[in-house]
Amino acid sequence: MPTKVKEFNDYRSKMNEKILASDNKVIKRIFNLDTNAFAAGHLPVKTKELLGLVASAVLRCDDCVQYHLEAAMKNGVTKAEMMETMSIANLIGGTIVIPHLRKAVEYWELLEEEEEEV
Q1: Could you tell me which of 49, 43, 55 has the C-alpha nearest to residue 92?
Q2: Could you read off the pLDDT of 78-93 as tens digits, one per residue?
Q3: What pTM was estimated for this model as a whole?
Q4: What is the model's pLDDT at position 2?
Q5: Which member of 22, 69, 97, 117 has the greatest number of CB atoms within 10 A?
Q6: Which residues of the chain have pLDDT under 50?
Q7: Domains of the chain
Q8: Cα 59 to Cα 51: distance, rounded to the nearest angstrom
């Protein structure tokens, strides 16, 4: 049975393929800009993913939060670093971000479970 993490990634991949197949120049450029913005540069990828996590939480985009949590974990972010990052998001975004913090912690735990299985 697919896990929530696998379902999220499969759906994201499937829909990204469909979106990019539309051959829309603006959308392709936005996707490319996103990819390049999170590449290593003056800031390490780990830092950029944490910045993306804060912005996503403040904007209350759970899909974005999940994406950045997974990328952050792959780039060596610890649970303590993730929680500190989410504390900044809650400070900046206010208490309306708390439901997204709950979902973020739940998703982080799923990522940890999957990592243990590997």
Answers
A1: 55
A2: 999 999 999 999 999 9
A3: 0.92
A4: 64
A5: 69
A6: none
A7: 4-117 (1.20.1290.10)
A8: 12
